[in-house]
């Protein structure tokens, strides 16, 4: 078993055995943590899986002075909070819109659920911009200021999100 600093060094080099060790060490603990908050074990597992994918994808950015436990805690907490924010937006949307006749979503609840799934699958920044713009009606200028990006970037995210959602939902 590697020490945390050695584990981080091996992860940075792309060592799969180190990744497996980190996974087996931290995954169960953070699934329990996520499940405690979201109350849905399959969702908790998915969220923590996303955390591990991000760690692997950005392993070259790992700082050897970090505590992996704290690092996984912060990433899991962020992932859970993003999930809860998105879930709350959709629950609010479902409660406040006439889904059958509002013209904003497909005609059935099953189709509306598919729309939600596809919005949640958008890249994080694009999803946040799209939700703030389309569900909360926040002006692009305010979104840009809140997210520290340009208005053009906000417009681009909205355009790309709309195109991606149209392409993926064409068959509904």
Description:
The chain is mainly alpha-helical. It has two domains: 4-81, RNA polymerase sigma factor, region 2, helix turn helix motif (Rna Polymerase Sigma Factor, Chain: A, Orthogonal Bundle); 97-169, Arc Repressor Mutant, subunit A (Orthogonal Bundle), CATH 1.10.10.10. Helices cover 75% and strands 0% of the residues. It is built from eight helices and no strands. The protein has helices at 4-12, 16-38, 41-57, 68-96, 109-120, 124-135, 140-147, 151-169. Helix 2 (16-38) packs antiparallel against helix 3 (41-57), helix 3 (41-57) packs across helix 4 (68-96) and helix 6 crosses helix 8 (151-169). It is globular and about 50 Å long.
Task: Sum up the structure in keywords.
single chain, about 170 residues, mainly alpha, Rna Polymerase Sigma Factor, Chain: A, Arc Repressor Mutant, subunit A, 2 domains, 8 helices, about 75% helix, about 0% strand, globular
